[in-house]
Amino acid sequence: MKTTDEFHSYYDSKLITDLQPLESERKGFIKRILRISFIFLVIAGAGSGIFFIFQNKIIDAIERMGYANAGVSADLVNSFTKSTANNFADKMIQQQVNLMRIEARVESKKASLTLLLIFNILIITVWIIVFTIKTARFSKKFRTKFKSEVIQKIVLFIDDKLNYRPAGGISESNFRNSNIFLTDVDRYKCEDEVSGMLGATRFEFSEVHAEYKKTETDSKGRTKTRWITIFKGLFFIGDFNKHFKTRTIVLPDNLERMFGFIGKALQSMNVGRDQLIKLEDPEFEKYFAVYGQDQIESRYILSTSLMKRIVDFRQKSKRPVSLSFVHSKVFVAIPVGANLFEPRVFRTILNFEMYRNYFEYLALCTGLVEDLNLNMRIWTKQ
Amino acid sequence: MNPMLIGLIAGAAVLIILALMYNSLVGKKNQVDNAFGSIDAMLKKRYDLIPNLIATVKTYMQHEKDTLTKITELRSKAMSGNLSNDDKVALNNQLTKAIGGIMVAVESYPDLKANQNFLQLQGSFNEIEEQLSAARRAYNASVTDYNNGVEMFPTNLLAGIIGYKRRQVFEIPEVERQNVSAADLFKK
Q: Alpha helices of A159-303 — where are they, by DSSP H?
């Protein structure tokens, strides 16, 4: 099993040179998108500049249109202000007309600024649309290339007999057959599948994201749909090294940790699950609660050594893993919050930490074969 | 009227609680017997495998004739059916030791080690030993459950009255088998 240090050397000596062309491609895209954004900025700036140069003329035109709309002759208004008013009545009318003219001017100025605002918002909207579409298209192409070149190499580094399929994954029926998660799945996505055979053990694992739909109708009759995650992370299926007929499920033990032996009593009342199996390893019992259809077969599967190995794996991965044993196979669910193996477009891909993360998750899953000692075939299953 | 009604309800509640406690104790006792029965079933499976083992190994292992004879004797004694539970357990522990000794001795017979029949048989024996171990662990778990009922409050009061006593858990003889291997290696 390759160590992180060995991977670091591999990265420094080989992988980083393979990454250079991809990084250049990414940088090229950034340059292009910046150029386009700059052009939009120039258009907006130029438009606004032109506006401010001709602002008075524009306001004049708007004012004229305003008078025409109101049915007032602009010329008549202008002539009235210019003519001399002799008597009191004429002076009064002149005052009114002046006030009206000032108001009209202010309104026209407001209208012109609104026009400018609309113009800029339009430019920004078009820019956002172009930016989003271009980024999405490049991101998709980049991701595909990254996976088939870089992730593929990391998988082969771990073991050159492994197969990597970026678009493959654990099938939904296999996921459901594990019986780890009882909720019905409404939306199922999987990707980044690694499969192969190590020793006598055939195995496969992939990223899985399973969700269920919750529709809520509020008091006004409007329906809102929410998607709630059932499981998101890495899902592993491997041949188990013993024959067995019934199923055994190993789940993270939350109740016992919080409530001690009352928690144990509550666990045995868990509806929808098989009977609770109480095992002897105290560390194992601290982490997990086991449900099985047959008290003896569950203990046959979970021997003292396997229980220790599972505890070690739980401590190594630092995640609340679940396992199940069904149809002579072992299923392991490792929850991971983030979406793995996805390169970021707007950040450099020459960051070792990123690859170290990928390597450690890939090694964690491939290492399960050794960690659970699945290649020990001293019983009747070969 | 009122005090009588309260008295009746209290009395009924006490009866119900007593019934629940009694049933839980009986259930646990039966679970222990059930688990012992499963061990018996596994032991029988092992008895069935032994003749095949003897036949396969006999021609190769000239030096272990004594152990093989001992295994056959132990098997007939254990199957005879008039034994107390303790005797049965003791005999079977001896059987485990003897069979373990044979499996270790095979190391010095390379022809036998490569023999397909023997390898399959070894796999079956490993499996039955592991299943026996699982059955013993299940028995121990049900005995612990039963002992908890007999000794914890409040069911311990009822258990004292009906005469249920603590039971012993099984010692797992795998530790013994390990000692045999070490001793044998040193002997050679």
A: 172-177, 255-268, 282-287, 295-301
Q: Which of A13-17, A96-100, A133-137, B6-10 has the least mean pLDDT?
A: A96-100
Q: What is the ipTM of this complex?
A: 0.80
pLDDT at A146: 93
Check B138 against A296: CB less than 8 A apart.
yes
Best residue of B49, B131, B143 to probe chain A, by most A CBs closer than 10 Å:
B131
Separation between Cα atoms, residue B179 and residue B30, nearest integer Å: 35
List B124's β-bridge partners, or say none.
none
β-bridge mates for residue A228, sequence order: A212
Q: What is the pTM of this model?
A: 0.81
* φ and ψ at residue A274, rounded to 5 degrees: -70, -175
Answer whether B69's CB lies under 8 Å from B50's CB.
no
Phi/psi for A39 (5° steps) reads -60, -45
Question: d(Cα A186, Cα A206) in Å, to the nearest integer?
Answer: 19
* Residues 6 or more apart in contact with residue B109 via CB below 8 angstroms: B60, B61
B126-147: pLDDT as tens digits? 899 899 989 999 999 999 999 9
Q: What CA–CA distances, in Å, run from A377 to A313, B36, B120?
A: 20, 28, 11
Averaged pLDDT score across all residues of chain A = 89
* Residue A373, CA distances (Å) to A154, A239, A256, B58, B160 in order: 24, 11, 28, 33, 47
Answer whether A303 sits within 8 Å of B130, measured CB to CB: yes
State whether residue A293 is helix, strand or coil. coil
Q: Is any Cβ of chain A less than 8 angstroms from the Cβ of B37?
A: no
The predicted pLDDT at position B187 comes to 47
Cβ contacts of A199 within 8 Å, gap of 6 or more? A369, A374, A375
Classify residue A229 by its DSSP letter.
E
B134/A379 Cβ within 8 A: no
Q: Which of A129, A130, A145 is nearest to A25 (CA)?
A: A145
Chain A residues whose CB is inside 8 A of the B140 CB are: 280
For residue A326, which amino acid is it?
V
Tens of pLDDT, residues B67-90: 888 888 888 888 887 778 778 888
Residues B62, B31 contacting (CB under 8 angstroms): no
C-alpha triplet A281, A282, A283: angle, nearest 5°? 95
How many H helices and E strands in chain A?
Answer: 13, 9
CA geometry: angle A263, A269, A275, nearest 5 deg: 105
Query: What are A107's two structure tokens?
Result: 């309104």
